[in-house]
Amino acid sequence: MPPDGLAAPQARPATARVFFALWPPAAIVEQLADIARSAASQLGGKATRPESIHLTLAFLGEVAESRLPLLARTAASVRAAPFELQIDTLGYWSHNHLLWAGCSAAPSELPGLAAALQQQLAAAGFVVADAGRPFAPHLSLLRKIPVAHPPKILPPIVPLAWSCTGFVLVRSQLSASGPEYKILAEFPLVP
To answer: Where does the Phosphoesterase HXTX domain start and stop, copy by copy (predicted)?
Structure first.
């Protein structure tokens, strides 16, 4: 014990800000980035960097680095069949000035995968930060659209077919230029 009789402060364990996501293949990323750049030129706002385009399945936030191996083992235990996504619609959320791409009709396997993942994570003692909200599958394309220019009518997009065969665990590190993402582990979709 220190001479003043006070206990030494406990060092906080190192943490990682993490989430699980579907990560689109390069061809889909390129097409979505084109849509984002076009929308930014029309609406203003900030287009999502191509290397950051993803569909979040579960956001955990800060997790002790010592628990990352358990987190990866837990995700590896999730069983879900591969599925096809048709990215065919744009949406706008006025509460956060965000333009997103998504499916007009998501296949049942997508919310099923998110639910199975969240269930396994909870059983292993992990807290999913967004578990209390309904799952809203989307790929963020444009942020910070000026309030004076909210889109009234969104243009149609050519449907993009995406074969989803796996999901990833991603570490997010915040920086002045925005979040930097690093894929920590990949998990195949296996029925």
So the answer is: 23-95
138 has catalytic annotation: yes
| Active-site choice (54, 95, 97, 149) | 54
Among candidate residues 95, 97, 138, 149, the one labeled active-site is 138
CA distance 188 to 167: 7
CA distance 102 to 159: 10
**Residue ranges making up the domain that contains 38:** 15-188
For residue range 107-158, list pLDDT tens digits in order.
999 999 999 999 999 999 999 998 888 999 999 999 999 877 677 788 889 9
Continuous H helices in the chain: 26-43, 68-76, 109-123
How many domains does the chain divide into?
1
- Residue-wise pLDDT tens digits, 17-45: 999 999 999 999 999 999 999 999 988 89
